[in-house]
């Protein structure tokens, strides 16, 4: 559909199962559209519940064989998959941008970021060391083994159609688990392209399956299954809560990466140009549709006006357009519902006294394009102080003291990412330690990489992804007590 792929074989519309590329037994398909112009990109198989049940059984069979391979053999498969992806970065980025909307440089960046998890966990899988513990009795010996959890399921969102998949699949596979992935209905094509390359890399059938279709129905089958031992979910807190309830009867292991409400704190002593750069990166990446995007700018009295003015200037300069255009710096929002949510948050804030400094409206390009927006005179009575904006809107709050900033920052049920800008090293430590967040960016607006533990506290989630800690999420401990 107008996509100039070097390798057209990457574009798939069927589900990827143990039996190969498979249509739905019901014949049903769902539409995937380009958010930049509403055109139809593909019609993807909507699997039946029975097909998903079968996929789970196949995953169990494949896992038994997969866990018998050595970690080094599994690493070999992952390394080949990594190289396949890196050899097709541009094609995958084209597919990703077509279905998701982000500008091509961001899409290429995401594909490389996604691949980095595969490379990382290929290595980490070899280091799933156990332990020998000095026993409390002289005739006992105690050993601790790490073993794969078993069959895993992943449910992933549309905002990072590649990275949110590899961040779960790579550690699962490295640990010796098999995994079924239910990608977001808006962005299944990237998931399927990654599966094409997994197949070419020789990853055995059934170890990785992409189960496309109705979220609620597939989610119900995956969570109810006794065979599925773990669910890893990235998405909204609301759906995370629901899935966690659905997993309770079978006591599944859970990893949840949920919503955020990131504070971006700028103190009077900050390097203001650096803070503005960080603010633009953190706020407008992916049109504001990331769970670590700055949601609330908290700026100290002394530089409040200057910060608002500079941020507004920089925001107005951003070139909005289709992600496939080379000049674009900000793409469309994912769909009309997202646009309406952003509009209603702005409306609520303005009604309660906020001022729009720049933007504030749907972009003249139409569809789901929205103007980069800066609001000042915002306060905590407004919905955007509590809710995840998930759009290109920067509300700037004012504070006077450090204590006030910390209290404001922590005044939310979320606890994913926080940012602070200051040149005072004591304050860096004090504030970082006081923030109830899983991740803190200090004088930077960009914190995600494969070597660090990504994750949140409070209602932002459970568990960590990436880093050496990310592997533990897919391993069980087994303790051996030996009489000698
Ligand atoms: P977002 O706001 O990012 O779309 P969601 O939490 O709605 O976040 O979606 C994240 C993922 O969860 C997507 O793959 C979506 O299809 C899936 N999902 C949404 N609702 C359910 C549900 N009731 N059961 C299972 N999966 C769901």
TrEMBL record:
Pfam families for this protein: Aldedh
UniProt-listed Enzyme Commission number(s): 1.2.1.-
Keywords: Oxidoreductase
Oxidoreductase listed as a keyword: yes
Keyword Transcription part of the UniProt annotation: no
Residues at the catalytic site: 257
GO MF term list: oxidoreductase activity
Aldehyde dehydrogenase domain ranges (all copies): 21-479
Similarity comment: Belongs to the aldehyde dehydrogenase family.
Protein name in the entry: NAD-dependent succinate-semialdehyde dehydrogenase
